[in-house]
Amino acid sequence: MSWGRDPFERFRNSTRARIGLGRAGDALPTAAILDFQLAHARARDAVHGRVDFVALAKELAPVPTIRIRSCAADRTVYLARPDLGRQPLAADLPVSGERHDIAFVIADGLSASAVERHAVPLFKACIKRLGGFSIAAVILGEQARVAFGDEAAAAFGAEVAIVLIGERPGLSVPDSLGVYITFQPQSGRRDSERNCISNIHADGLSYEVAADKIVWIVREALRLQLTGVDLKENAEGTASTLTHGDA
């Protein structure tokens, strides 16, 4: 064994995880400590940041948008009361008899930077693949969590809700976007009734691959009339589904 060679080098080249950081006496090296503190600061900024929904609406133009707030009055309340972030403010909900196949919800979630960097490109990649479907105005959810999309999308009579939301940041990725797809969204839907696609960011899932997965799930959801644990996609990229009877 060569003592001069770093045994962790080959692992660090394959992962963003912090491994084999070394030591300086009883502590980590200064560079590792500073890197950790920077990553922690970026994660905090992502959680406490605010999405510029005005700029987001301009990026989406000419696609129509509607801004709907949750019952969490501000970021402090949002972080302390997850239940309020799941409820759209009744005064913001539209009153219409419209029916649509799909409603997109872009929600700030727990990472403003993820939404501002990735939501619009991913939305556009999905729209290119969703020809022939009726799509509602894009809902911009402020101080919103995943379940917020159920009632918000239901207000547009949507058969499927697609929620694009900032994921909880980690110390290696502060700007990861997640997508939650729910058939027949309505208040009270369980998490087991949704499909999730996560880790959409520069070093993770690309917009094109994520959009392919989203569109496949949407088509299967409308065909089988369900989403959640009964709708599966295997790791090899070929689709597989379970009906309620099979499950």
Structure in words:
The protein has helices spanning 9-12, 30-48, 53-60, 75-80, 82-85, 112-127, 148-154, 207-224; strands at 65-69, 100-107, 138-142, 158-166, 177-183, 194-200, 231-233, 239-241. 33% of the residues lie in helices and 19% in strands. Strands 1-3-2-4-5-6 form a 6-stranded mixed sheet, sandwiched between helices. It has a two-stranded antiparallel ribbon with strand order 7-8. The chain has one domain (53-241): Rossmann fold (3-Layer(aba) Sandwich). The protein has 8 helices and 8 strands. By secondary structure, the protein is of the alpha/beta class.
Beta-strand portion reads: 15-25%
Number of domains: 1
Runs in which pLDDT lies below 50 for 5 or more consecutive residues are: 235-247
SS field, number of helical segments: 8
Order of helices and strands: HHHEHHEHEHEEEHEE
Key terms:
8 helices, alpha/beta, two-stranded antiparallel ribbon, 247 residues, Rossmann fold, disordered C terminus, single chain, 8 strands, six-stranded mixed beta sheet
Helices and strands, with pairings:
Layout: H1 9-12, H2 30-48, H3 53-60, E1 65-69, H4 75-80, H5 82-85, E2 100-107, H6 112-127, E3 138-142, H7 148-154, E4 158-166, E5 177-183, E6 194-200, H8 207-224, E7 231-233, E8 239-241
Parallel strand pairs: 1-3, 2-3, 2-4
Antiparallel strand pairs: 4-5, 5-6, 7-8
Helix pairs in contact: 6-8
Condensed summary:
Helices cover 33% and strands 19% of the residues. The chain contains eight helices and eight strands; from the N terminus they run αααβααβαβαβββαββ.
